[in-house]
Specification:
Blueprint lengths: L4 H9 L3 H7 L4 H11 L2 E4 L3 H11 L10 E5 L9 H14 L1 H7 L5 H9 L5 H8 L2 H26 L2 H10 L7 E5 L7 H8 L18 H5 L20 H21 L6 E5 L12 H11 L4 E5 L17 H9 L5 E5 L11 E2 H4 L12 E9 L1 H9 L7 E9 L4 H11 L12 E4 L3 E4 L7 H16 L16 H5 L4
Parallel strand pairs: 1-2, 2-3, 3-4, 4-5, 5-6, 6-8, 7-8, 8-9, 9-10
Antiparallel strand pairs: 10-11
Helix pairs in contact: 1-3, 2-3, 5-8, 5-9, 7-9, 10-13, 13-14, 14-15, 18-19
Organism: Imshaugia aleurites
Protein name: F-box domain-containing protein
Length: 491
């Protein structure tokens, strides 16, 4: 007797990937629902394995209609390591997960097993000595050669536009694609924890060969003794120049943006973590701005953290208007969620991007926006209230991570939020920094982590959401005295 389709769907929701693969082989009634969950998320990168699987899925009539989410692996093999640098990276990663390597290596990896057996200690220094001996020659030579080959292939396919064509052609087939995420690093898991969740045994078998490093076809096949590809986050002490990392981040963003625009694929959610800080510089080309408007104007959710590069020595931020970002935000009238973190210059700690340099000045309203998170912004009282009420009338969740008032005081803002905006969420974590009076600290700072400051943050949150007594009132003041804070704002 055949099970109802609804029941099959509920069963498939609870299954792991390897079980979904088995379900596809049971019957036609199971194949469709299982495929929908198995292929709802696919990967792409300028690497042979990912391109091959991406092409197979996008060219398949049924499977291409299962795809809802695309993850773009933006990591890179450039600049290529020297053989000695490659060896140091191998030692660093193996020593970090030494127990895993001793217990979980496949029997097919003979050369690596022999290498571990010849090394009594898996600390980085001991591994260096072992790898510099005869038993390590093959491991380093072959691994470094593959790393260089990967680097050459990725450079070539991107440089001559082949990868952009492949991506654009595939996106045209993904009619139901809803979201895109660009990843700049592999989110590595502690190997022991991963396998403990998979099976209650120490050594994984072939059936539990889910990704050690990354979920893409390439990531699952990448050898354990290879360093993971490089992110475009700056690496201290490395040979990577700041300019080259910037170029890498911009390049990946340009590729996915152009492909989405040319394929006329209108997605609802886009996440990139993190883009280069110069992404929306004043000199951005007109074609990039136009492609961005075409690709992202229909977004319902936007997470854009340009602040994740901050804290780098010598980082300089030019506080000029960002017309590309202004145009992009102005085109996104259907936004429901906006999370934006702006860069700041550590050499000028009090400086921040101003409201009119970031948000469009044409009066654009985001009538559907319910969730807003802002970091790295300087704004006047009037502009802040106008943004939160007139331009975002349905706002219900608000997060200030780093906001500086150009005039007025935060006591009044807290009172305004309580009386004029019906928020459901107003988190103030330990990293939140609020300044008023043009730079004077109201909340935050490295020293602001004691129990008293945590209690004050909790009181502010509770007051905005539930009312009660304003946390900034003196003990001898009446509860109604909080109205004075609104009068002080001179609205």
């Amino acid at each position: 007797m055949a099970l109802p389709c609804e029941l099959i769907l509920e069963v498939c929701k609870c299954l792991a990937k390897r079980d979904l693969k088995i379900c596809r082989l049971l019957s036609k009634s199971w194949s469709g629902p299982a495929s929908g969950f198995l292929f709802s998320k696919i990967y792409i990168s300028p690497r042979k394995e990912d391109i091959e699987v991406f092409n197979l899925i996008t060219q398949h009539k049924q499977l291409s209609h299962c795809v809802r989410h695309l993850e773009y692996d933006g990591t890179t093999f450039s600049p290529c390591y020297t053989e000695y640098e490659y060896m140091l990276r191998v030692c660093e990663e193996v020593s970090r997960f030494s127990d895993f390597y001793r217990t979980c290596l496949s029997k097919s990896e003979h050369q690596y097993t022999q290498l571990l057996e010849t090394s009594s200690d898996l600390t980085s220094s001991a591994l260096i000595a072992t790898l510099q001996g005869p038993s390590g020659d093959a491991v380093i030579f072959e691994g470094h050669r593959e790393w260089k080959d990967r680097d050459a292939f990725q450079r070539k396919i991107v440089k001559y536009g082949d990868f952009l064509q492949i991506l654009t052609r595939g996106l045209r087939k993904l009619d139901l694609l809803k979201s895109v995420e660009v990843c700049n690093e592999w989110h590595r898991q502690e190997f022991h924890d991963f396998y403990r969740r998979q099976k209650p045994i120490d050594i994984p078998n072939e059936d539990s060969s889910d990704p050690y490093f990354y979920g893409s076809p390439f990531g699952r096949a990448w050898g354990l003794f290879h360093p993971v590809p490089r992110s475009w986050v700056y690496e201290s002490g490395g040979r990577t120049s700041r300019e080259e990392n910037f170029a890498t981040g911009r390049e990946q963003f340009h590729i996915i943006t152009t492909a989405l625009s040319q394929s006329q694929r209108h997605i609802l959610s886009f996440h990139i973590s993190p883009p280069p800080a110069s992404l929306f510089d004043p000199n951005a080309t007109e074609s990039l701005v136009n492609h961005s408007l075409n690709a992202y104007s229909g977004l319902e959710g936007l997470t854009l953290h340009l602040d994740e590069y901050m804290g780098e020595t010598g980082m300089i931020v030019e506080y000029e208007p960002l017309p590309g970002l202004q145009a992009l935000l102005g085109s996104m009238s259907g936004l429901r969620r906006l999370d934006i973190g702006l860069p700041w210059d550590e050499q000028h700690e009090d400086a921040r991007f101003k409201y009119h340099q970031v948000f469009p000045t044409d009066g654009t309203q985001w009538m559907r926006l319910t969730k807003l998170s802002i970091s790295g912004l300087a704004i006047s009282i009037n502009d802040l209230f106008h943004l939160l009420t007139a331009r975002m009338p349905k706002l219900r969740e608000l997060t200030f991570s780093d906001v500086q008032l150009l005039d007025g005081r935060w006591e009044g803002v807290i009172e305004f939020l309580k009386t004029s905006i019906h928020l459901l969420s107003f988190p103030l974590d330990e990293c939140a920094m609020l300044r008023h009076l043009g730079g004077r600290l109201f909340l935050g700072g490295n020293y602001d982590k004691d129990e008293e400051s945590f209690a004050f943050r909790a009181e502010l949150e509770k007051y905005v959401l539930s009312g009660g007594r304003h946390p900034c009132l003196h003990p001898d003041e009446d509860v109604s005295a909080s109205k004075k804070y609104l009068l002080d704002l001179d609205l």
